[in-house]
Model the fold of this input.
Amino acid sequence: MEELFEKLDLSEYLSAYNEFLARPKSLFISGDSKANYEKIEEISSLNLKSPKEIANLDDALMRVSKQAVLHISEIYEFSKIIEYFNYLKSQNFGDKMRGYLDKIEIPSSIDKICDYFDENGEFKESIDERLISINEAYKNKKKQIDESLKKLIYTKHLSPYLVDTQIHYINSNEALLVRGGFNHALKGTVIARSSGGYFYVLPDIVSKLKSEQSDLLDKKEEILFEHAKIISAIFHKNLSFLKFINSAFDYIDSLIARVSFAKSKDYNFVLANSSKDIILSEFAHPALKNPKRISVDFRGKILLITGVNAGGKSMLLKSILSAALLAKYLLPMSINSTKSSIGSFKEFEAIIEDPQNSKNDISTFAGRMLGFSKILGKKQILIGVDEIELGTDFEEAASLYSVLLTSMMSSDIKMVITTHHKRLAMLLAKNSEVELIAALYDEQNSRPKYEFLKGIIGKSYAFETASRYGIPANLVASAKSAYGDDKENLNEMISKALNLELELKLKLKSVEEKELKLDELLKDLKEAKIRADETLRARLSSLEAEFYKAINEAKRGINLKDTKEKQRSLNNANFIAKSIQKPTILSEPIELKVGDRVKYDKIKGVVLSLSKNDAIIDSNGVNLRVPISLLKPTNQSPLNNQKSVNISLSRPNSASVMIDLHGLRSDEAIERLDKFISDALIAGFDEVLIKHGIGTGKLAYAVKEFLKSHPSVKAFKDGAPSEGGFGSKVVKL
Done:
């Protein structure tokens, strides 16, 4: 496993992760991956303290099974485990972690042992009164030693022999540094000599007190052994539980270490699924200092990476394998987890380095063949092969590998391959299970782009790379001549195809964006028509009711016998009829000219051309034909006619230095955050606090990406524990 991590440039990553473990263990986590992922999410929502370092207790458990007596320090290691589980049980976890912890019942006889030790792991003297008197006596002996040494230092008959007045510690013994001839003034034992020829002497009086101290420590050890014997007997009765809790601690330690590591690096988790697809969004390999994030959609059996030298092909291969490997072991990574999907693989194989070695008497090509022979017939395996044609003739390698790889595709394998050989790519490209991706080259600036284009064979740009790294132009020209016009023409065709493909993809992207805008405009037009129809129907219904009222009043007046009443009723009917507000008709259309900004319902645009009754307007790159009678001016002059713009900002009535986004959707939270930062800038704040929580990480990721792109944000960092910790951001404006 370590060899694979080293091949994929993940050694530093693994070392950094291991620092968060309480004790070393394998990367594998027992249990269901989905359940483990859900527990990790619940752990991520809390700011838990990490467990203390714990020693390996396998040997201690074996000796307990044989009724041996453990040392008091080994008992303390078990107590640290029990103490940490008690701490976890007191936390407010979700259903998964709570359900797991509730199943763990700690025997009371084991639980109370945690109270035997203080924070430094020392056995508490309050447990046994004899320890109190021993510790007190030991302190007194220490005090007597100090007083005796000070008394000797200031003795007149010894002062001529003292080199200095310091107390020196030699092999845990207090000693004085004296000159030769000290025997007449000091009784003691020489325990060392200095580089200057002086003597370190342990005075007899101090030696006696040290011996008495040693006797006290022996008595203390005897008392501790008595307690260790009793506790070991309790451990023997609860051996099954101790084995379980020791294993459970490794499980919990693995989960918490992953979460702590992820928070320290701002990484995300991706749960490997049952598919064999590898879809990466904005992935950054942890070994890169300033990575250019990659996005890959690999659903076939083979991904063939071609293109420019030093263009990132090998790192792309390592990135794909690394992401799949980290997902398998539920290790965090720098990735957009919401847009990524990674399948599950049983094994991984990286054929990357040159296997040629004088010690093993093997050639490069033979080593490659040996590597392939080992993986033939394996299933559920992800393989990475860097520079597959290495070590033999290109033409022969192309034929051999095309047959070999085609055969392997019938098995349950997935391969990522880099190659400079276009013939191999062309032979494999016709297979629907083979996906092509090319490393791009910036021909204008003569350097790799470290970007990749899917669906095309790339050119190696060997001659351009040689020129870029200082090879004389005349030598490059001679090399091109030796290479041959036909092959160079093929390279030119590939280069043109790359550029055309890239241009086509950009145009397709532009068309897709316009289609989205058009869909939005059509939706707005449809909604505008529905509102207009509803308004018209409501107005017609109102007019019908008002006219019906007037007509009924007139009918009532006609049937009246009294002339005055009849006249009064007809007058009232006439008044009602005149009071009816009829729809107004535009007598004259509005005057428009090309370049005016107009609005049709909610749709805004600029007038491009005018006809007798219609106008062509441009709305976000989409042209619309709209009747002039339905357009309204928007009080905004065309951009090319603006001479000056006056902007006035009013200070907000109430501005805060903190915003809480808990419980909001990402889009709603970002909208509020944008206004919050604007108000803070107007109010003159230079630092604000954003609380977003941890949760699934989606809201935290959205906030982080928004802050990265905001032009007024100078820097941001996680808040202090009192400010929300990893669930908050302190932003400098």
The chain has six domains: 21-126+223-265, 143-217, 272-469, 519-578, 596-633, 658-732.
